[in-house]
Design brief:
This protein has 414 residues and is an alpha/beta fold. It has a domain of 242 residues: TIM Barrel (Alpha-Beta Barrel). It has 11 helices and 19 strands. The strands form 3 sheets. Strands 4, 13, 14, 15, 16, 17, 18 and 19 form an 8-stranded mixed beta sheet that branches. Strands 5-6-7-8-9-10-11-12 form an 8-stranded parallel barrel, surrounded by 5 helices. A 3-stranded antiparallel beta sheet has the order 1-2-3. Helix 6 runs parallel beside helix 7 and helix 8 packs parallel to helix 9. The protein is elongated, with a radius of gyration of 22 Å. The N terminus is likely disordered. Bound molecules: pyridoxal-5'-phosphate. Pyridoxal-5'-phosphate binds next to helix 10.
């Protein structure tokens, strides 16, 4: 890992501040120095020169800033609050160290191995909340042995967990409010009406099942969606109102966990649900009814802190398209190939230069969908150039695969 305290003066570029005509992504932690794109003032060309490509680079300062911003809005709520970082977003040990050092943060885990990673990073069992889907008996045995809090979303899992956990074990019920919100209408992205969560009409039966199994329901959980947008406000209002009603119906409930879903911009047109708007929804619809609000942000805390650096190996015109080949594919970052979610591509040496051409940027995996962008507008690109893809701090490295035996990309924290 690169320690920020170890920075030499020569590594630091004089920064260009954001101008009014700057591209949408420009601004902390991204800047521009003598060698091009910088992360926290650190030349990404220099970091890539040291570690090679493809390479994920994360900013400590950006993660800390996001934690601070979240804490500021939570402090405005008249309720006890808990933050469980969603480890599935990024489990790089260096980033977990940063989050651990913040103090007072817990972890949202979804599998026994995620719990192990959280424990190895120094989080206590009591700081870890598990929300697993379709858990096996093996998983449930592990959660009991690990002594972590578990939220469950099926009658089957409640019955099987109750048969294993000590009588009186606290449990959470994950609810599906039947509302589809978030970044896209694609079934790959929405959480309502899907495989997760107890539908409200199964709620009473689930509570009775938990009771009969010797479990005590202390938590209600809902994860509304990924990449929540400003226009999702009315639906979020409905979901939070519904959660308050359900909490009221079950007297033992102390915590409503509203999951993750807060996002960051991925393209100029994006209007993510702001922290202030989110807190306002919580304040108006949930905190009057609930003592403790928990949340599980992943993307919000780490996405904008990360960038993927790749090297161009091919520039070639075929038909009417100029193809740019890079040394990473959807095995390293799945956003475009799997979800169709854009990732911004920036010329690393000349991030603010005017657009000179349109390029199709393709990865090195033998799949036709392994294309990062069909028409990226960029300054002139040559073989050997470096490109930056951003934001790339969430669900990049953590979703990487060994497909074609080309992964994974190393990760560095600056
Ligand atoms: C249950 C649960 N909580 C939290 C998260 C984190 O979501 P995000 O990264 O959108 O904040 C997820 C993401 O899939 C999730 O499934």
């Amino acid at each position: 890992m690169d320690a920020p305290s170890g920075r030499r003066a020569a590594d630091l570029d004089p920064e260009v501040g954001p101008a009014s005509s700057s591209p949408w992504w420009f601004g902390a932690p991204f800047g521009c120095g003598r060698e091009g794109l910088t992360l926290d003032g650190r030349s990404l060309a220099a970091v890539a020169g040291r570690h090679g490509t493809p390479l994920y680079v994360y900013s400590r300062a950006a993660v800390r800033a996001q934690v601070a911003a979240l804490r500021r809005v939570l402090a405005t709520l008249e309720a006890e609050t808990r933050v469980h970082y969603a480890l599935k977003a990024n489990r790089c040990p260096g980033l977990l160290e940063v989050l651990r050092a913040e103090g007072g943060l817990g972890i949202d885990a979804c599998s026994p191995r995620e719990v192990e990673v959280a424990r190895a990073a120094g989080f206590a069992a009591g700081e870890i909340s598990v929300t697993a889907c379709m858990p096996s008996n093996r998983d449930l045995d592990a959660f009991v042995a690990q002594g972590v809090h578990v939220n469950l979303d099926s009658l089957s899992a409640l019955r099987r967990y109750g048969a294993r956990a000590p009588k009186g074990t606290a449990v959470g019920l994950r609810v599906d409010c039947g509302i589809e919100v978030g970044y896209g209408c694609d079934p790959k992205l929405v959480y309502g009406n899907g495989k997760f969560g107890l539908q409200p009409d199964a709620f009473d039966e689930a509570a009775a099942t938990a009771r009969a199994a010797g479990l005590v329901v202390t938590t209600l959980h809902v994860h509304c969606g990924w990449g929540l947008r400003m226009e999702d406000g009315p639906q979020m209002e409905w979901i939070f109102t519904r959660m308050a009603e359900l909490a009221h119906r079950l007297p033992g409930v102390e915590v409503v966990n509203v999951g993750g879903g807060l996002g960051v911009r991925r393209q100029a047109a994006d209007r993510p649900l702001s922290l202030a708007a989110w807190a306002d929804l919580l304040r108006r619809h949930l905190t009057p009814a609930v003592r403790t609000i928990a949340c599980e942000p992943g993307t919000l805390l780490v996405d904008r802190a990360g960038v993927l650096v790749v090297e161009v190996n091919t520039v070639e015109r075929r038909g009417g398209t100029t193809w740019v080949g890079v040394d990473a594919g959807h095995n390293v970052n799945v956003y475009m190939a799997h979800y169709g979610i854009p990732i911004e591509i920036v010329h690393l040496a000349r991030p603010l230069d005017p657009v000179e051409a349109s390029y199709a940027v393709a990865g090195n995996i033998n799949e036709s969908n392994d294309v990062f962008a069909r028409a990226a507008l960029l300054p002139r690109i040559q073989e050997g150039d470096l490109l930056a893809m951003l934001p790339a701090g969430a669900y990049g490295a953590s979703m990487a695969s060994e497909h074609c035996l080309r992964g994974p990309a190393p990760e560095v924290v600056v």
